[in-house]
Design goal:
By secondary structure, the protein is α/β, with parallel strands linked by helices. It is built from 9 helices and 6 strands. Bound molecules: 1,6-di-O-phosphono-beta-D-glucopyranose and magnesium ion.
Length: 212
């Protein structure tokens, strides 16, 4: 088999939390009188919480103290976590569920490589708590994508060499991270158009064909 492990990004690959990120950031932006729309929200994909806020602040009139930035990002996360309570196993599509099971059946190790500090909570909401062989997320890294740290750690957690791992990503920063970490990658959704991936997926179940 071409790979020994698959490392999945979470938001935008296994599930979709964009609308909750958007609603929570919108509340903060409105409070600060900053223009924010779904196009700007798309730039926040795969980017850490504080880096996301810095992108939103590009339209802020003035400079903000670091302690205020910390307070606003904390508040955003409280709103976001409240919204995440709406997620349930029904948010996991049959296609994703069946594909994950088929990949595991082939003997592949399955891991998560996510920038989110809420990855564990989201996985539990989806009914996937304990499913993956390893979870590398925003809690165990000091550098966000496009730095490869989150994927390099995931590979270490499943005890496989980077060259034997395939990363699945929906964000350009995530593909860059995989490549910098010495891994092949598969793009899904918006990430396809940047042309960086080893494989471009039309749909999640295509993973069954490229791992033969
Ligand atoms: P949190 P991923 C990323 O998850 C999201 O795509 C990105 O929009 C978010 O800012 C980031 O996680 C941090 O999330 O605020 O929950 O720690 O795509 O890397 O799974
Ligand atoms: Mg993502």
């Amino acid at each position: 088999m071409k790979y020994k492990a698959i490392i999945f990004d979470l938001d935008g690959v296994i599930c979709h939390t964009d609308k909750y990120h958007y609603m929570a950031w919108k509340q903060i932006a409105d409070e600060l009188g900053i223009y924010f729309d779904e196009t700007i929200n798309n730039r926040l994909r795969g980017v850490s919480r504080m880096e996301s806020f810095e992108i939103i602040l590009e339209r802020y009139d003035g400079t903000m103290k670091e302690e205020d930035k910390a307070a606003y990002t904390t508040k955003k996360n409280e709103v976001y976590k409240e919204l995440l309570k709406n997620m349930s196993p029904a948010d996991l599509t049959d296609e994703v569920k069946e594909t994950l099971l088929a990949l595991r059946e082939k003997g592949l190790k399955l891991a998560i490589g996510s920038s989110s500090k809420n990855a564990g909570f989201i996985l539990n909401q989806l009914g996937l708590g304990g499913f993956f062989d390893a979870v590398s997320d925003g809690n165990n890294i000091t550098h966000s994508k496009p730095d490869p740290e989150v994927f390099v750690k995931a590979a270490q957690f499943v005890e496989e060499a980077p060259r034997d791992c395939l990363v699945v990503e929906d964000a350009k920063a995530g593909l860059e991270a995989a490549i910098a970490g010495g891994m092949e990658c598969a793009a899904i959704g918006d990430a396809v158009s940047c042309g960086l991936a080893t494989w471009n997926l039309t749909t999640f179940s295509d993973l069954k064909n490229i791992t033969n």
